[in-house]
User: Which sequence fits this backbone?
């Protein structure tokens, strides 16, 4: 593949992933549960280790189902802690993500010491590198983005009602749990796709930062839908350009830096000019 | 055999050092601070290494702890002045600082020799290798000395400021009304947490730190009703998890830190089951301020 084609594919994949996670993050911020992305991102590790032990393959098609399943189980464990054990949600998040990650580390060490081969290829799945992206992965993330956009468009009224006024939504006959399940599914797919490009830690920023920037500059929800996509795309372009300009620079961290600078800059701007949106 | 024992001693110290601020964090609903600080310490680690050119903990621990403490202050500013939700503020700050750290390290990767894995995400197996020397006498692993010093400092802080910790944790409004400076106490707690996080993740890795900050505290909070008992029992559950993880991991030849995180989860589930089965009145009469 020529250098230009590589840059094009990386840019396309990152842009699509950024927009999909910006929309998911917007919905998550309405729900008030933005760190569920972080919980899932840490929670995928045991699934990856187990899939590798089971299938002995580093192909993404084998690792993905395990990652999705264990991310979902981690999120369920957190919700169980909140509902059944009466733990507050922040403690429950910390417990679920650290124990799940610890379980994953146990699995990884079993792979390393138990003669199951090297875990080196698995690191790529976790720590993300946008530069090694493959065309079929871009196809996958564009499908994902179309899916999320479709959900937002066709479930517009439901999402809007449920996350702005849960009680009223319930009173007029919508089931809030269905929307929660749908959003959980979107977050799961988004995070599992995203961590291959951005890494476990930085994935949260792709979810959180665009929604924060949008909340500073625009007020209406439908404006925010366009605005978060714009913010995300701008950050991805700026980040890719920077990492192409300096050699040996990782793309993901630069995108995160631009996203955060937009958020911090917007806050300073709002404080100086006393705008309240 | 001596090495395995040193590993156990280190893990027990880590458990206690984490359980003390972890309990306070849980009561103040800021448990995720440990997660955030562990990641946000990266630029501090880099700067300390860059300016001192030395990998010794004398520079790395202050650098990392300052950077983590700064992250905590920044996110609490975002929460107070920008009306950001506490989880969004944390997520924004720690990803930003982690990204800055990664960029700095990859920018100077050719000049300096700083390996992320070995500096930031320590491994408990290497504990006995890094020794502490007075003149030329071998005084045991360095991490044990650092952790004991931190533990002593924490005990002193808790003992001297007991009334302040007590009041600002349970009734901040009342504490403020009678003249306690809430912001100062909160940033003192953040200093404690970032010191604990930094000191511990150098020896056991960041995952075990987050687990030991949250899980033993939550285990104790399932049945405890008093702050003093909460702190003591959280330490005990932490030590027990460390011991169980050590017993499990060494013969099975798996990661010790991961095993300890899993063991703490077993303890939590066991205690939850026990209180639910045998102390149902405890669950019914749960006051809002605990757990």
Assistant:
């Amino acid at each position: 593949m020529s250098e230009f084609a590589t840059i094009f594919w990386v840019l396309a994949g990152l842009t699509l992933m950024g927009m999909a996670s910006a929309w998911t993050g917007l919905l998550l911020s309405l729900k008030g549960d933005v760190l569920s992305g972080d919980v899932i991102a840490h929670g995928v590790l045991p699934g990856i280790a187990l899939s590798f032990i089971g299938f002995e393959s580093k192909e993404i098609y084998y690792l993905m189902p395990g990652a999705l399943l264990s991310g979902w189980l981690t999120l369920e464990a957190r919700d169980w802690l909140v509902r059944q054990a009466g733990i507050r949600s922040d403690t429950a998040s910390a417990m679920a993500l650290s124990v799940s990650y610890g379980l994953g580390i146990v699995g990884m060490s079993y792979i390393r010491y138990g003669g199951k081969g090297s875990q080196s290829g698995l690191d790529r799945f976790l720590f993300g590198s946008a530069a090694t992206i493959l065309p079929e992965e871009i196809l996958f993330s564009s499908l994902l983005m179309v899916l999320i956009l479709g959900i937002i468009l066709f479930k517009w009224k439901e999402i809007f009602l449920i996350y702005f006024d849960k009680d009223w939504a319930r009173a007029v006959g919508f089931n809030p749990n269905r929307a929660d399940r749908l959003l959980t599914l979107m977050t799961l797919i988004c995070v599992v796709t995203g961590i291959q490009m951005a890494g476990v830690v930085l994935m949260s920023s792709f979810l959180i930062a665009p929604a924060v920037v949008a909340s500073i500059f625009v007020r209406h929800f439908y404006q925010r839908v366009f605005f978060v996509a714009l913010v995300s795309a701008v950050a991805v372009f700026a980040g890719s350009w920077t990492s192409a300009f300096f050699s040996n620079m990782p793309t993901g961290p630069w995108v995160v830096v631009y996203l955060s600078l937009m958020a911090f800059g917007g806050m300073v701007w709002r404080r100086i000019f006393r705008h309240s949106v | 055999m001596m090495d395995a024992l040193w590993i156990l001693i280190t893990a027990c110290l880590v458990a206690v050092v984490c359980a003390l601020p972890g309990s306070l964090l849980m009561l103040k609903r800021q448990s995720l601070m440990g997660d955030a600080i562990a990641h946000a310490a990266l630029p501090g680690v880099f700067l300390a290494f860059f300016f001192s050119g030395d990998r010794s903990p004398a520079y790395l621990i202050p650098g990392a702890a300052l950077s983590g403490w700064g992250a905590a202050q920044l996110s609490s500013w975002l929460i107070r002045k920008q009306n950001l939700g506490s989880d969004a503020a944390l997520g924004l700050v720690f990803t930003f600082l982690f990204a800055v750290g990664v960029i700095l390290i990859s920018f100077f990767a050719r000049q300096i020799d700083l390996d992320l894995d070995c500096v930031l995400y320590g491994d408990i197996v290497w504990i006995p290798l890094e020794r502490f020397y007075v003149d030329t006498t071998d005084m045991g692993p360095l991490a044990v000395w650092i952790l004991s010093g931190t533990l002593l400092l924490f005990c002193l802080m808790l003992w001297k400021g007991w009334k302040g910790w007590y009041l600002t944790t349970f009734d901040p409004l009342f504490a403020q009304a009678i003249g306690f400076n809430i912001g100062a106490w909160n940033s003192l707690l953040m200093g404690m947490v970032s010191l604990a996080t930094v000191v511990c993740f150098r020896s056991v890795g960041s995952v075990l730190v987050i687990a030991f900050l949250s899980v033993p505290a939550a285990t104790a909070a399932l049945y405890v009703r008093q702050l003093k008992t909460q702190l003591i029992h959280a330490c005990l559950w932490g030590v027990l998890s460390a011991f169980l993880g050590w017993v499990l991991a060494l013969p099975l030849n798996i990661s010790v830190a991961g095993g300890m995180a899993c063991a703490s989860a077993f303890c939590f589930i066991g205690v939850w089951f026990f209180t639910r089965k045998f102390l149902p009145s405890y669950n019914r009469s749960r006051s809002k301020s605990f757990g």
